[in-house]
Amino acid sequence: MRPIILGICAAFFFAFTFVLNRAMDLSGGSWIWSASLRYFFMVPLLLFIVGWRKGLLTLFREMKKEFHNWLLWSFIGFVLFYAPLCFASAYGPGWLIAGTWQITIISGSLLVPIFYETIQTEKGLIRIRGQIPYKGLVMSFIILIGVAIMQLEHATKLSVKDAVLCVIPILIASFAYPLGNRKMMEVCNGKLDAYQRVLGMTIASLPFWFFLSIFGYFIVGLPSKEQVAQSGLVAIFSGVFATVLFFAATDLVKGNMKKLGAVEATQSMEVLFAVAGEIIILSAPLPSAVSLFGMMLVIIGMVLHSWISARKESIKSDAVSA
């Protein structure tokens, strides 16, 4: 239950990303600065946290061993995740970004076969290639149906071009985030905690953010003070709080792809939190009855997904004990 609670808390803080990124776009800020500034702000914050926890030397030692893997999977897990997400915010409201982002629930499940999971047998612990959790995947589709219903009345207001430029980048991000996260868990192999892993991935992704910011300087100029301040808030709420909570939740269930899928399913709550945030911060209209029905499906799908994953794990444990 603890990983699920941590996942829901992460979803709450992740929702700030969609609301604040949309606010920055509406005020004329470029997606380039929305993306890069977040990670620039994350570095000193995480350096302080990891340094206070006396984990910097261990982190740098582990990064030195496999720095090429840190560069690769940090680029995939952070750059190919967040840059497309910010780009999409220029072509759609926060609710659409958050709603479409829930495809990551299915994306994460489809990635399972390229990973191995550890199971207990009579001969001891063995590693086997993961199998797609089809029953959990059905529950994920329920979540996505709920998201689709919730956003149905709004989606018809977008042009085809805006819809494509909004959806395609999010699809890329939906595969990049779980892939980078899971691969870095394999690289770290339990030697680093969530704070260290997030800091390491942030540092390893910095060259790409520097390149993007230089590109942004020549294309759109420097960011406004308002965008800098809002990016700082995103860095604190989403970049530090949400990412660390989510990584901590996935660390608790690493090696178990079914439970990992359940944790990732909690991110569907971002839609509900994003809707509430847009109402409060951006004065968006209240959801209709249709949207509320969609929200109910999201919650039901998430609960069923988690319940099935926990039930199957319990049955497996009973079988091993017998």
Automatic annotation (TrEMBL):
Keywords, in A-Z order: Membrane, Transmembrane, Transmembrane helix
InterPro entries per the UniProt record, alphabetical: EmrE
UniProt key word Membrane: yes
Transmembrane regions listed in the UniProt entry: 31-50, 70-90, 96-116, 136-152, 158-177, 198-220, 232-253, 265-284, 290-308
Keyword Transmembrane applies: yes
Name the UniProt record assigns to this protein: YjlA
Origin species: Bacillus methanolicus PB1
